[in-house]
Amino acid sequence: MYTALIATLVVLVIAVAIAWFKDYPRRLRATPPQLREGSSLPEFSAVTDKDEPVHSTDLKGAPAVILFVRGNWCPFCTRQVDQLTRYYRDIVDLGARLVFVTPKPLETTRRVADFFRVDFDFWLDENHAIAHKLGLFLDEGVPSDYGPEYGQHTLWPAALVTDADGVIRYSELSRQIKDRPDPRKLLREIRKALRS
Length: 196
Description:
two-stranded antiparallel sheet, 7 helices, Glutaredoxin, alpha+beta
């Protein structure tokens, strides 16, 4: 009887520890209040890969998937872009836009767009103003090998789905740098946004 009680307590402690550690990275990087579901997308300005000014309010009128990526030096970001190329047609056929916001230099953004041969929207956050405003700024997040070309700072990876009114219907910050949302999940969230 005593042995069974101790065994049960040990299993319970292990289960609690696993649940705590599994969620530990998310607790370290909480979703900023300005990106919470149900709130309006904060206003911000950017520049496209064609060096044209754009504004977050330009996304109103249709749902949008907005992905904040660190740069083409990041293998996890490159893989994310690659995976989304397979779902690009599904996203635009729903009437949605797919926008990548990145702090990397204009020339490298053009190279990524040309490489994947998909008409994604690439918006540049040249001075990290968007990352600061949205609570995604990552101080000294660029590996030192890439620092000379990309600088020291970047942003924390995140994904948003907004509806046609610019309201955030889905928000997910990466729990770890390598963590990215499944494109199928983003498609489901766009469909939900269309029904709201």
